[in-house]
């Protein structure tokens, strides 16, 4: 093994506005090393990967490939230096064939820019054969199922003959057998001296295939270790922070209230949407926090949208306090007392360019209609109260939401829905990209809502979060709700195992 | 690096005031180059000239705030004028005449909005198609000829009358602007437009009827164009299917964009659109006074819009 | 690349329309009417082929009509004011058109302007430019002088293919205008570029997934500028054909033509979402538009109604495009379901 790392980043910092996504992070990967990069959502893993691939330029810091300083924020240059990446989201051109996508932007030519189809096809066949990937080269990518699209992405990265391969949650969409095959590919590449960075939430995968790990939290590198020298509980503790781990363990011990008051507030039976989710059944009681966890892509969010009327379902029943309901528009669900803190606060939750005050009343605007006009005074008073109750920092309603930190943005989003005084409150990934302090505050708010008698339904991929706040836990795998447990009668490793079951 | 940061910091502080400052600068420049520029008659003349574009621009600001655009304002202006003319010629009373012209503009706007909001078609193409459809309909209705409006003092008062020495059309522009500023700041519609413009998905998930909101604001844009059509026909005592020629929509969009409303949707303000209208009006007037040829004026207008947009993008 | 069903649907529709008009419109299925169709819509097809490129990269070019006017006027000036020989005028004005297109692309990538507003602005600026360089106004006497340079007027030429091949004994054949062959050449060249070159693939990639193109190391800025340059080049080509027909140019040349071009592209199955379609569809779309408009004229429908119909056809085409997108999304979901 050579002494110079194949790829290294030093003192990498990335600042968006006043949000620090990456703070003085460093990483180095040797030839033939598989390094896991782990941390909770929003810990800065994806940002770090994007800096290494040149997709974004860091605010500070340097990237070296084989000991030579590389230009920053230039993907072309990084590809030329042999750095390839499989991103979390699709990087394919949907209207083009698999063959073209594998060689996106680098199709072989015969001079004058003329395509050399023969060589391209022959190369592709060799590549797919060598890695045991089964793909129809002439299929149009946009018409393929998502799992197949992921395989195209993998083939595309492999086609680069990369020296460094970065994988950002490559298994999010794959079934267990596919994961095993991907791991075989990784071992082959490792034997050939490729340096690999592997991001995954699945500790099983990391312990199966990785040699070393870098643990991140809040944009910083917290620890580095060889995989064989560290135990799983220690990894989890490092990921979520010792204090939070201790606090949550404490809170969990005293506070669990499975089935709350005992009255079913929201009853869901055999909810089905063809091709998306199937026979999903669960009850959420007044006064409990019910968490649904599972892999990204296990269709939890889709179920929530169907409940809330922002999407439709094909069959099954939803009951609210024993009465059957079906909402055609979010407004109907809201009128029935359901609030929905959506997943991606930038895309679906907040109006970033509007003031905190306006965002806080966005779901309850009707309360402030006075003869066709808006009651500005009432809005200001209501917002001021929310800001104090939620401890939004800075406590200034005129501030534009985009200027707040992630945690405070999330509190504003939460506040918008609490103003509705919901009887059922649904939260989808409520603490992604939120710092530890704000996380604890949000958990406290959720418990307070529960204790006031609301039915709280949380969707979360963050197992620490689930184990911390849940009274009961539902586990969703590939569009089906596989199991429901009382949170005090199940261990994290049990949950991990059930989530990871083959689809 | 340091200087660049300083410059951009300076830019950020100055940006909100750039438009009023620019207006001040060109007023000073024109006043020095040609003192007649500052005469009250000329200043009133500027306002009179911008009234039509001003009404259309303020009325279409909400559309642009939601990331849309209305390219059909020119033909809508023409057909509303024509319909009003025919109603006059048929001897209907003034309120009916006005209702017909305004109602048609509103209807075409609603049709645009409904197709865009409920079918999810791109606004550029939809309103481009409407442009063609409405122009064709106007020509079918009125032919290529001018229709002279005679002996209709009440109707022509709208475009040519004076109150206290100031043309009525200026009062109408100011009234429309004030009403729309009020709508934006004090009514639920204003808040909804901002919400849809900022994040349509989030607005929908907050329980708002975003499709209805969009339909309404395209209706408003059509209404503005219809109103402008009535004023124009009364101003020049004629109605014709060819009024509001290609390029009218450019003037309108230019004024809104100069006012700082982003074409990507999001923040925007009717009050600032008024300033954009004034800026363009003063530029036109000043260049006319200085005898800048028409072709240079067109090029200058294109350049100004591009520069303004580029600056907005830098922000 | 496999032929997509959208093209088949278009061909079918084309055949059906032609059949209907042949049956019901008097003098529709005649050689002279086919001649009108080819000479009247070949340049629309060329504009549509050019317009397809900006739309393929998820943009739009509203300035093509104005570029037609600029190129027309430059041709007028070079030939009549400066007496530049025609063989030099042709390449020069093609360069002018290409540069005008490149400027559009440059504004879009360097100033990050929205394509439609950038080209709306250049539409105004180019129109202004036409007035300021107008030889008709600079030298008033020239406005009635026709262009006589053989290189330019030669573009308006007809070939009696039927007579040459002897086919006209069997069937009445239209004379083929040169513009039709120019259109075929332009079509062949750009279809080849799209399907057979790296640049063509890059166009699809940039339009289909801009971020993926950037991360794959494609020089996205260059691709976009090239797409708008092609649009400008095609506008110049169309302008030359128009000038050859009129033997002069006017300030209003090409007004409103962007509408027909965009309609033809959308009818031709190029998605406004970028990344799907070809240039064959738009060319076919232009002639389909032509058939409908000519057929209606023969049926005695007023040209104003035709203007209305152009708008309606545009709306119908874009609705169809939207329908295809929705159907594809549904098919994707069905695929996913099959995967489970």
Short recap of the structure:
Chain A has helices at residues 45-53, 75-80, 98-102, 117-131, 146-159, 176-191, 203-209, 232-240, 242-255, 300-308, 330-335, 345-349, 356-360, 376-390, 406-418, 436-451, 463-469, 492-499, and strands at residues 7-16, 19-29, 34-38, 60-65, 68-69, 83-86, 164-168, 195-199, 212-217, 220-226, 264-273, 277-285, 289-294, 315-320, 323-325, 338-341, 369-370, 373-374, 424-428, 455-459, 472-477, 480-486.
Would you mind describing this structure in some detail?
- The complex is a heterotrimer of chains A (503), B (315) and C (340).
- Chain A contains 18 helices and 22 strands.
- Chain A is globular, with a radius of gyration of 24 Å.
- Chain A is of the alpha/beta class and 503 residues long.
- In chain A, strands 6-7-8-3-9-10 form a six-stranded mixed β-sheet, with helices on both faces. Chain A has a six-stranded mixed β-sheet with strand order 16-19-20-13-21-22, sandwiched between helices.
- In chain A, strand 19, helix 16 (436-451) and strand 20 form a beta-alpha-beta unit.
- In chain A, helix 8 crosses helix 9, helix 9 runs parallel beside helix 17 and helix 15 packs parallel to helix 16.
- In chain B, 53% of the residues are buried.
- In chain B, strand 2 and strand 3 form a beta hairpin.
- In chain B, strands 1-4 form a two-stranded antiparallel ribbon. Chain B has a two-stranded antiparallel sheet with strand order 2-3.
- By secondary structure, chain C is mainly alpha-helical.
- Chain C has a single domain (4-339), classed as Orthogonal Bundle (ABC transporter involved in vitamin B12 uptake, BtuC), CATH 1.10.3470.
- Helix content of chain C is 74%, strand content 1%.
- Chain C has helices spanning 5-24, 31-56, 64-81, 86-110, 115-132, 135-138, 150-153, 161-165, 178-196, 198-208, 210-215, 220-246, 257-267, 280-298, 303-339, and strands at 158-159, 176-177.
- The B-C interface holds B 69, 115, 119-122, 124-126, 128-137, 139-140, 246-247, 250, 253, 257, 263-264, 293-299, 301-303, 305-306, 309-310, 313 and C 60, 107, 111-114, 116-118, 120-125, 127-132, 255-256, 259, 262, 266, 272, 302, 304-312, 314-315, 318-319, 322.
